[in-house]
Amino acid sequence: MTHLLLINPNTTASMTAAIAETARAVAAAGTQVQACQPTFGPVSIEGHFDEAIAAAGVAEQVRLADPVPDAVVIACFGDPGLDAAREAVDAPVLGIAEAAFHAAAMLASGFSVVTTMTRTCVTAERLLQRYGFERSCRGVHGTDIPVLALEAMARDTLAQIEAACRQALVADRSGAIVLGCAGMAALTQTLQQRLRVPVIDGVAAAVKFAEALAALGLTTSKRGDYARPLPKRYDGWAAALGWPTAG
Ligand code: 2AL
């Protein structure tokens, strides 16, 4: 049995449940998905400040994870806390943006990202640079749909996202769409049928890649910067997240 820890970095429990449903729909029979969210932080992640707090929330969840996971997925498109989570566990840790970019680059020579608030585009652009996908991503497009508005998924929200995808495919001359929010997962099949191009939801992609790495017996390298955090006391509200000192 592969124990996959699925962290929704925002605190909206209904969104955690929806993300877990997506993950369980694609997970192998031998994968047990444990979904969780931080005990503190923003209800949605739509900017740098939200993301800074959410990254600490991801660190909290991965630090306190019980049982110790075989694979971890961080289900927010900014991949908050990814490096911190990799230090904290041996298991492979995947962010949904990272997973989606890899999948898209294997399916089309160029892809477009369609996301939520325009102000979050810079986050996706920085991740594309960081992961080395700036040559295969041909554009990042905001729809100005708030993350929590995706929960209601009104018909006009779907229409707005579909229109943005169509515009992106033409303007960018791209062959695939990456959906830039964990809250868009439920739209994937509908959009793929309508657009007739690969539409990649990072949650599903990350779950399948994480399963594959775990099944291959591969773990996060503990040589170098992903080694366990140095032993030390943490103060204040983070006291429970510190690393035991010897003796
Ligand atoms: C996200 C996401 O995936 N979850 C969240 O709260 N915000 N992404 C985004 N681009 O807004």
Description:
By secondary structure, this protein is of the alpha/beta class. It is built from 9 helices and 8 strands. The chain has helices at 13-26, 48-63, 82-88, 96-107, 121-131, 149-152, 155-172, 188-195, 202-215, and strands at residues 2-7, 31-36, 71-74, 93-95, 111-115, 137-142, 176-179, 199-201. Helix 1 (13-26) crosses helix 9 and helix 4 packs across helix 9 (202-215). The mean pLDDT is 97. The protein binds 1-(2,5-dioxo-2,5-dihydro-1H-imidazol-4-yl)urea. The site of 1-(2,5-dioxo-2,5-dihydro-1H-imidazol-4-yl)urea has 14 residues, from loops.
Summed up:
The chain has 247 residues and is an alpha/beta fold. 42% of the residues lie in helices and 15% in strands. It is globular.
Keywords:
247 residues, alpha/beta, four-stranded parallel sheet, binds 1-(2,5-dioxo-2,5-dihydro-1H-imidazol-4-yl)urea
Q: What count of helical segments does DSSP give?
A: 9
Helix proportion of residues, in percent?
Answer: 40-55%
Indicate the structural class: alpha/beta
Q: Give Rg in angstroms.
A: 18 Å
The main β sheet shows up as: 4 strands, parallel
Q: What low-confidence regions span 5 or more consecutive residues with pLDDT below 50?
A: none
Order of neighbouring strands in the sheet with most strands: 2-1-3-4
The tally of beta strands, per DSSP, is 8
Strand content: 5-15%
Q: What is the average of the pLDDT values?
A: 97
- How far do the termini sit from each other? 35 Å
Order of helices and strands: EHEHEHEHEHEHHEHEH
Choose one word for the global shape.
globular
Give the cofactors and ligands.
Answer: 1-(2,5-dioxo-2,5-dihydro-1H-imidazol-4-yl)urea
